[in-house]
Design a protein that fits this description.
197 residues, mainly beta, SH3 type barrels, TolA/TonB C-terminal domain, 2 domains, 3-stranded antiparallel β-sheet, 14 strands, globular, disordered N terminus
Length: 197
């Protein structure tokens, strides 16, 4: 009888074994990230680079990137590269205006110059005047592989004075560049000239 009392009072009986935990499920397969399918990265080598929605200079601009930014390379089509920006936007850029990461480190043929960005040989010479309208004129210049400005186009003119826009175009046309080098070859490029009045 005493034994029964001890058993009902809880005595030294062992605690019930915990229920077995379910077996861990197999880990989910890793999601394929866009970077996993990427063909590498490229670095922007001009002051401002237009990102377009198709591989054409007439395609709509979907974004802009600045010198030194790295873009994920998705695919290529001729002189155009399909890239992904940091915010996830995808679009097309000219292969002549970017450098593939690791490309500069590859061994070069004897006498071949290293990849480089453009530089000024003769910078534009702005003229200054105290009187008249004030504002900013932005001109896009097309520069050939010799470093010569072959065409200009006024992008914006906050001064609303066409003579100042013409002056800014004349100034950048008088400039001379050392063009960027890609794979041992000088390349044409676009230069954005911002002129404050």
């Amino acid at each position: 009888m005493c034994l029964l009392v001890l058993a009902s009072c809880g005595g030294n009986t062992p605690a019930p074994a915990p229920a077995p935990e379910p077996a861990p499920s197999a880990p989910a397969p890793a999601a394929t990230t866009p970077e996993a399918a990427a063909a590498g990265t490229v670095r922007v080598n001009v002051s401002t680079l237009n990102v377009r929605d198709d591989a054409s200079v007439s395609a709509a601009i979907v974004g802009h990137v600045r010198r030194g930014e790295r873009l994920t390379l998705i695919a290529e089509s001729g002189d155009w590269l399909h890239v992904r920006l940091h915010d996830g936007t995808t679009g097309w850029v000219s292969s002549q205006l970017v450098v593939r990461d690791g490309e500069a480190a590859r061994s070069k043929r004897a006498g071949c110059p290293s990849d480089s960005a453009y530089s000024f040989v003769n910078p534009p010479k702005p003229s200054f005047a105290e009187l008249g309208p004030h504002g900013m004129v932005v001109v896009e210049a097309t520069v050939d592989a010799r470093g010569v400005v072959t065409a200009t186009r006024v992008i914006s003119n906050d001064t609303h004075d066409s003579s100042l826009a013409a002056l800014a175009e004349r100034e950048i046309r008088g400039a001379r560049f050392a063009p960027p080098i890609r794979n041992c070859v000088p390349r044409p490029f676009f230069f954005t000239y911002k002129r404050a009045f």
